[in-house]
Specification:
The protein has 342 residues and is α+β, with helices and mostly antiparallel strands. The protein has eleven helices and ten strands. Helices cover 40% and strands 19% of the residues. The longest helix has 37 residues. The structure holds phenylalanine.
């Protein structure tokens, strides 16, 4: 029994020498000296010994117990001191560098364009991304069963148990804000609407279900297509920081009459034809046109007195062109290797 006690003492001392954390120390104390601990277990066997043995071993056991308790106390003090030492604040140490984030490429260009349009007296407006079928289609001269609806398939929201008069859709373009703005501010009106839009698309390098547009609208007396072209050119200069060669083609959108498509000369091949411009030498950049009288009427504006132009810039496409990005899916990928380049 003496041997067992001595061996246990040595075992505990060895373990204590390696301990660095208070929690571990506490566990060890419970394991050996606690009520159900190893040491206590040995002491319990004393009762089976002779009186003489009890005397001798009892004495030894008490001594060892005292030694152990002292040793535990000592180790506890050392650890506590070390912890305090470690936690001391050295204000002269160099600080930890905090990684700063930065703006997404779409936000960067959006901010630049907003500034440009504000400088020309345009308001910057917002609209709901979950839009009513009315503003997204009907108010824009696209009635319920009109084939033009096929141009923009979207995500329809289940109307069950809801009382709204019109179906809700994820807006397919920023154009619904045209009518909202007319209703709210009347004429004359100058605004741009940057924002997220949604289409039910099969995804590939050129198509995403979620992308960004920037809508422009200007309504006043005597607004003509030459005002539209002037503003579009200003916009292009702002984006590409140089004069861009453009051409205008007719284009069909139910909410403009006449409708046009503005193309720019392909900057990659300088108009000679390359894979990026599908060998045409030109890139389709933005659709636009003179606001259709039905749309002005939906916005409570008198089409006999006022006219206006609107355009819908594909912000995501434009940024792809500006930076030569060949896959639209990169924008929403959250891939830092892509994002950190801007
Ligand atoms: N909203 C149209 C689209 O997303 C673009 C557009 C806007 C066309 C304004 C003409 C005028 O396709």
């Amino acid at each position: 029994m003496q041997n067992r006690l001595q061996k246990l003492k040595q075992e505990i001392f060895d373990k204590l020498a390696e301990i660095k954390h208070l929690d571990v120390l506490r566990d060890l104390e419970v394991k050996y000296l606690g009520r159900k601990g190893e040491f206590t277990k040995i002491l319990r066997c004393l009762k089976d010994l002779t009186i003489q043995e009890k005397k001798e071993i009892g004495k030894l056991a008490n001594e060892i117990k005292k030694d152990l308790q002292e040793k535990f106390e000592e180790v506890k003090n050392v650890i506590t001191k070390n912890v305090i030492k470690r936690e001391k604040l050295d204000v002269t140490l160099p600080g930890e560098k905090i990684e700063k984030g930065h703006l997404h490429p779409i936000t960067i260009i959006q901010n630049e364009l907003e500034d440009l349009f504000i400088s020309m007296g345009f308001m910057v407006l917002d609209g709901p991304e979950l839009e009513s079928d009315y503003y997204n289609f009907e108010a824009l001269n696209i009635p319920k069963h009109h084939p033009a609806r096929d141009m923009q398939d979207t995500f329809y929201i289940d109307k069950k148990n809801k009382k709204q008069e019109y179906d809700l859709v994820m807006r397919t373009h920023t154009s619904p804000v045209q009518v909202r703005a007319m209703q709210k501010y009347g004429a004359p009106l100058r605004c741009v609407v940057p924002g997220k839009v949604f289409r039910n698309e099969a995804l590939d390098a050129c198509h995403e279900h979620t992308f960004y547009q920037l809508e422009g609208l200007m309504i006043d007396e005597n607004i003509s297509i030459s005002n539209l072209i002037a503003v579009m050119k200003k916009l292009l200069n702002g984006i590409f920081k140089k004069e861009m060669e453009t051409r205008v083609r007719p284009g069909y959108f139910p909410f403009v009459e006449p409708g046009i498509e503005l193309d720019i000369k392909c900057a990659i091949c300088n108009g000679k034809g390359c894979p990026s411009c599908k060998n045409s030498g030109w890139l389709e950049l933005f659709p636009a046109g003179m606001v259709h009288p039905n749309v002005l009427i939906a916005g409570n504006i008198d089409p006999k007195k006022y006219s206006g132009f609107a355009f819908g810039l594909g912000l995501t496409r434009l940024i792809m062109m500006k930076y030569g990005i060949n896959d639209i899916r990169l924008f929403n990928s959250g891939d830092l290797r892509f994002l950190e380049q801007f």
